[in-house]
Amino acid sequence: MSTTIIEIAQKAGVSIATVSRAFTQNSSIHPDTRRKILRIAEENHYKPNPSARSLSSKRTDTIGVVLPELVDEFFSEIIRGIDEEAYKSQHYVLVASSHSQRNVLETVLEFMFSGRVEGVILMVPQLQNEFIKLISRSKRPVVLIDAPQNINQVVSFNINNFQGAYSVVEHIINHGYKKVGIIIGPEGNCDSDERFRGFSHALKKYNLPLDQDFIIRGDFTYRSGYYSFIRLMSQNKKPDAIFATNDMMALGIYEAARNSQIKIPQDVAIVGFDDIFSSRLLQPRLTTVHVPISELGSSAVRYLFKMINGEVDLHKPCRNELTTGLVIGGSCGCPISNAQIIF
Amino acid sequence: MSTTIIEIAQKAGVSIATVSRAFTQNSSIHPDTRRKILRIAEENHYKPNPSARSLSSKRTDTIGVVLPELVDEFFSEIIRGIDEEAYKSQHYVLVASSHSQRNVLETVLEFMFSGRVEGVILMVPQLQNEFIKLISRSKRPVVLIDAPQNINQVVSFNINNFQGAYSVVEHIINHGYKKVGIIIGPEGNCDSDERFRGFSHALKKYNLPLDQDFIIRGDFTYRSGYYSFIRLMSQNKKPDAIFATNDMMALGIYEAARNSQIKIPQDVAIVGFDDIFSSRLLQPRLTTVHVPISELGSSAVRYLFKMINGEVDLHKPCRNELTTGLVIGGSCGCPISNAQIIF
DNA sequence: GTATTTGATGTAAACGTTTACATTTATCAG
DNA sequence: CTGATAAATGTAAACGTTTACATCAAATAC
């Protein structure tokens, strides 16, 4: 049907082995021969068949990416980081989001055992132990994005949630707020856990009490931010500052505050985490923690390639934390002109 | 190395052909035999090798998706729609963003046609004629998302830009505004062109003049919205309403208005297009045009599968328009309580 | 009882490469 | 000039499936 290596070999007057060599990097072939073959291939619209190639060589030039459903703003940034890096190394990206209808374990297994990809980048905020075992035993390299702190048998790239949370909470404490509330994320979510840890640590450091009434569980959605805020602020004892453990919930807070005539930051200061695009539009702008999202993706890919190329040990655990940065808006009480928002 | 079909055949006491048949849908094999083989395969962690399979059968169970770099909010929604639909049909999704470099797109296309995927979903707002030819001659099915109006040799799924623009502009005209400005998108962008057409048509219909001073070219970015607004409003003759041809530019407008103390909608009414998440956070909420993004992706995939399965003619051009909906906020002058935003 | 059809399975030839090994040719030291 | 070494190319055996075709047994028709 389509042109094969045999045709090209005939037209170039060489064997198929030589044609094959013309298409691979480190093979001994005369530069002139290669040029000639590539020219003829070009003329005949010949491309090596990927299936045949990987059947024979066991390489697929493809990496797999498994993403969770939730992380909306992350999604495109992460993929962009991954895709860009993969493109540089001439690799393809096979994606799968772990849908509600889909069992994550199944997807990952499929990926790892089907031989379709050379390695996997896995992002699952709620990671069970069985996964960890599976991954650490796997023959194919796996890099996690956002792995729980206590897991150390794997390779992972993470946001420094603790540090980020600590510094943003420290920042509001320095404003003089003493009754600091927090809206945490879903149970078992490692980002949320770490951010809570940073929060607690900051309070402790500054000798502030950890008041149970000021700890509300949300689930990282807009809606939960809205309602958690209302719950917090309808108690007799109200916080004077709130740490929303992600920006999406902070957005919900802003709406709830507007609806109940509560002024930010006069009545209550708000800080968030993630620095998502939308948070920059809020009035006053949200003070939050910047996260290097696409870098998370590209770093993960770079490391994955090292594993694939055998430059690093496949089973040597390795935890990497990317540093966060504080983004100061007006929501914490800082005097901020909004004129500088243009980006 | 890993278990092959031969091993399973031996353990099951059948030929490899029978094992193969156990793994394909429409093959004559005794149910008991299949069950037994699948059990043994399961026990031995056997999965058919995808490369071998597709080398032999010419099927890859994979579709390709090429996306532009820009369209941020669309990205994740589109992929979600595509992935979900592909998953239902047991297909994998290979993504590539076109990195906004033209020759890259070419490479990507070639990659896609190298036999790695069974069909391609292509989204490129600025599509050149050479591509159209390439696509319409292609052996593999291609479905376009967002194809220029004047292109009719291909299969495409589109937003009804004209209708959407027409109705939102009609809406502001009905408010009584007579000097309606517009910020259009980048040159050659088909979405922008169609939206402009809808705009002009509405003006004409209501006997309003098309004033060149009220037409400013932006490029769909926040930044361009900001500066285009300033340009529009620093003329002697100012518009009393502005149609931003996408929401991202409307966001920029809001900031520019805030900085120059111009009140929306009292001093100037604003409407947008896309109904992106962020636009719901604006005060007053942006009146805009809702676009069924993920549906665009899933419809495209469904049609692609029909082409792959030969249910529809590969080369029969087919243009599909998905209807948009008007989202009423307060930015056009409508009295709107913001309480209902929670979604 | 024989001929015919049907369904389940086996046989073996693709599918289009890569690559270990063999062969040829060119290069060069002595 | 000879033998050794290196570089370029050829030969042919994998790689792990699918599938057209052949075979065989059982069911059905007459």
Question: What do you see in this structure?
Answer:
- The structure is a homodimer of 343-residue chains.
- Chain A has 343 residues and is of the alpha/beta class.
- Chain A folds into 3 domains: 5-57, 434 Repressor (Amino-terminal Domain) (Orthogonal Bundle), CATH 1.10.260.40; 62-159 and 293-322, Response regulator (Rossmann fold), CATH 3.40.50.2300; 161-287 and 328-341, Response regulator (Rossmann fold), CATH 3.40.50.2300.
- Chain A has 12 helices and 12 strands.
- Chain A has helices at 5-12, 16-22, 31-43, 50-57, 72-88, 104-114, 129-137, 161-174, 190-205, 222-233, 247-259, 293-308; strands at residues 62-67, 92-97, 119-122, 142-145, 155-159, 180-184, 215-217, 241-244, 269-271, 288-290, 318-322, 325-327.
- In chain A, strands 2-1-3-4-5-11 form a 6-stranded parallel sheet, with helices on both faces.
- The longest helix of chain A is centred in the N-terminal third of the chain and has 17 residues, at 72-88.
- The radius of gyration of chain A is 26 Å and the shape is elongated.
- Chains A and B meet through helix 4, helix 5, strand 2, helix 10 and helix 11 of A and helix 4, helix 5, strand 2, helix 6 and helix 10 of B.
- Strand 2 of chain A pairs antiparallel with strand 2 (92-97) of chain B, so a sheet runs across the interface.
- The structure holds a DNA duplex (30 and 30 nucleotides).
| SSE order of chain A, one letter for each helix or strand | HHHHEHEHEHEEHEHEHEHEEHEE
Q: Estimate nothing, just give the exact number of structural domains of chain A.
A: 3
Work out the largest interface and the residue count of each chain: A-B, 51 and 53 residues
Uncertain regions spanning at least 5 consecutive residues of chain A: 338-343
| CATH class type of the largest domain in chain A | Alpha Beta
Q: How is the CATH topology of the largest domain in chain A named?
A: Rossmann fold
Instruction: Kindly state the number of beta strands of chain A.
Output: 12
